[in-house]
Amino acid sequence: MIQANAASGMAVSDECKLKFLELKAKRNSRFIVFKIVDQAVVVDSIGGPQNTYDDFTKALPPNECRYAVFDFDFTTHENCQRSKIFFIAWSPDSAKVRQKMVYASSKDRFKRELDGIQVELQVTDPSEMSMDIIKARAY
């Protein structure tokens, strides 16, 4: 239980909030990947506006947990351009149990710091965030 208490006091770096606000307002990045380092959430990597969803999925480490936001642009059935910001909690089965616990216990607090999340996905395997799933959740 000590990990959960320690994790609930997780700090969020100002850079996380700033980069998210820039993604939301200026659309100057396609995605941001966040990681927990020494009881704080920090920016791990950023994909520019030219980056694809494939680039985003490759930015998630296969054996470690991460939080991520992805700005998904799409065209509705009525031919309208739309965008939705996805929050993805990446927790692969191969990650260490303690790491999964820390990420799970800190997720809601971190997500509250990012105002403007429209869709949330909890993902343990790449197949759970295929482009088909992303499209289905966006519409």
Structure explained in plain terms:
The protein is α/β, with parallel strands linked by helices. The protein is 37% helix and 30% strand. It is built from five helices and six strands. It has helices at residues 2-8, 14-26, 53-58, 97-113, 131-138, and strands at residues 11-12, 31-37, 40-47, 66-75, 81-90, 119-123. A six-stranded mixed β-sheet has the order 1-3-2-4-5-6, sandwiched between helices. Strand 5 (81-90), helix 4 (97-113) and strand 6 form a beta-alpha-beta unit. Helix 1 runs parallel beside helix 4. The radius of gyration is 15 Å and the shape is globular. It starts with a helix and ends with a helix. Mean pLDDT is 92; it is low at 1-7.
